Amino acid sequence: MKAVLYIFISIILFSSCDDSKVSVEIPDNNFEGLWLVTSVVGPRQNDPALPHMDKFNKGRWIQFEDDSSYTTNIKGQYDFGKYRPLGDGKDSAEFRSFRGDVYHIAAKYNPNGSGLILNRINVPEMTDTYDYYFNCTVRKFKYRNSTYDTYAVENNYWRLPAESSENDSLIVRRMTNHIDFWLAYLNTANKMNVRSFDYSNINSCFLFSPHGISLLNFKKWESTFQTLFYTKGEAERAYKLTSKAIYKSEFRKNDNAYLQGIDLFRQIKYHLLNPNE
């Protein structure tokens, strides 16, 4: 009788465990958590370059993990590897990329959950350098399961451009990994009860709204997404394979737009991986 009762209680506890749970806090120290660029500050008033820099850098990020690993697109190209703070750890860190590159980033954190990342620009025609700063919000997200970590390496392999031609199997793997990113992103937005959706930090072929998910025609994909594929023909192939998966998916209305989107993306992923069903 005790054994049966123990098993019953275990099942109840297991079923009530929310594997997708996420919490957020303001970090205590520099080089912790997710640094998300919100705006760019320039050294001069009425700087004509500033609006363009703001447009192209808003939404970029660095995520610092507790195990001294990082993921980032702060320089425009996706990268991941290991980092270590330099000196007293208050204003600079060394990054060692998986590509073998070594570089430094200067960043200063405020305990109120904001930070500044230095972006120093040298003008070729002039001897002067200009210091621009990326204003960032800094938050430390904690996930019960790393599958739901939006900026984890595992959910962002799709950001690495193809180095050679990819067959249908590899194209599907790229698209399903991109969907993994979306699933993690929407789960976080849902758990944090985000009330508005911002596309500035998403490079995607999908559009998400309370009305569902739509796939842009590959000719309308941003070049930063289209060029992840080895050729335009393979980008078009990705579009066709994903379109077929979407047509097989069933729209199920949910008053929670995030859960509705998660359901659709899971169906699309399933049909991409099982095209004959």
Question: What would you say this structure looks like, in words?
Answer:
It is a single chain. The protein folds into two domains: 22-142, Lipocalin (Beta Barrel), CATH 2.40.128; 149-273, no CATH class. The protein is 31% helix and 27% strand. The protein has helices at residues 2-16, 50-57, 168-191, 223-226, 232-248, 257-273; strands at 22-25, 33-41, 61-64, 69-72, 79-85, 92-97, 102-110, 114-122, 129-143, 206-209, 212-215. It has an eight-stranded antiparallel β-barrel with strand order 2-3-4-5-6-7-8-9. Strands 10-11 form a two-stranded antiparallel sheet. β6 (92-97) and β7 (102-110) form a beta hairpin. It is globular. It starts with a helix and ends with a helix.
Oligomer: single chain
Largest sheet report: 8 strands, antiparallel, barrel
Helix content: 25-40%
Helix and strand run: HEEHEEEEEEEHEEHHH
Q: Helix/strand/pairing class, anyone?
A: alpha+beta
Overall form: globular
End-to-end separation in angstroms reads 44 Å
